């Protein structure tokens, strides 16, 4: 082969590669890639927004549960103080009168029946 044929063969190879590249790059493929990329970005943005909303909701739930835990701790402290009292009989009498509505045998109770 002479030098002209070698150069001609190299040009033909370059032209074939160039034609192959053009065949692979269809205009619809670029548009589909753009649409797919845009859809992925929108999905990511929506996911971030929904996650932030869920975080805010969970923080609100945490605040409510923390408040309830504080109330239960106060109630628990009250029960602990009642249990630590030396005179259990006094507690039992107070509980029977205030909560259960018991009375002493000679005690008279008056109730307002006016319905106010």
Can you put this structure into words, describing what you see?
With about 120 residues, the protein is mainly alpha-helical. The protein has helices at about 5-25, 25-85, 90-100. The longest helix has about 55 residues, at about 25-85. It starts with a helix and ends in an 18-residue tail after the last helix. The mean pLDDT is about 85.
Task: Sum up the structure in keywords.
single chain, 116 residues, mainly alpha, 3 helices, 0% strand, rod-shaped
How are the elements arranged and paired?
Layout: H1 3-24, H2 27-83, H3 88-98
Termini gap: 120 Å
Instruction: Sketch the topology as an H/E string, one letter per element.
Output: HHH
Query: Which parts are unreliable, with pLDDT below 50 for 5 consecutive residues or more?
Result: none
Tell me the number of helical segments per DSSP (H or I, 4 or more residues long).
Answer: 3
Overall geometry: rod-shaped
In total, the number of strands is 0
Which structural class best describes the helix and strand composition?
mainly alpha
Radius of gyration using CA atoms only: 43 Å
Strand residue percentage: under 5%
Helix content: over 70%
Mean pLDDT: 83
Summarize the structure.
Helix content is 78%, strand content 0%. By secondary structure, the chain is mostly helical.
């Amino acid at each position: 082969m002479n030098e002209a044929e070698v150069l001609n063969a190299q040009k033909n190879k370059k032209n074939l590669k160039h034609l192959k590249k053009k065949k692979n790059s269809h205009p619809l493929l670029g548009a589909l890639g753009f649409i797919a990329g845009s859809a992925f970005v929108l999905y990511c943005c929506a996911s971030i927004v929904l996650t932030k909303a869920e975080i805010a909701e969970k923080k609100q739930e945490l605040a409510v549960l923390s408040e309830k835990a504080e109330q239960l701790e106060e109630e628990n402290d009250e029960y602990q103080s009642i249990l630590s009292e030396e005179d259990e009989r006094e507690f039992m009498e107070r509980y029977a009168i205030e909560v259960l509505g018991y009375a002493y045998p000679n005690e008279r109770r008056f109730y307002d029946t006016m319905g106010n």
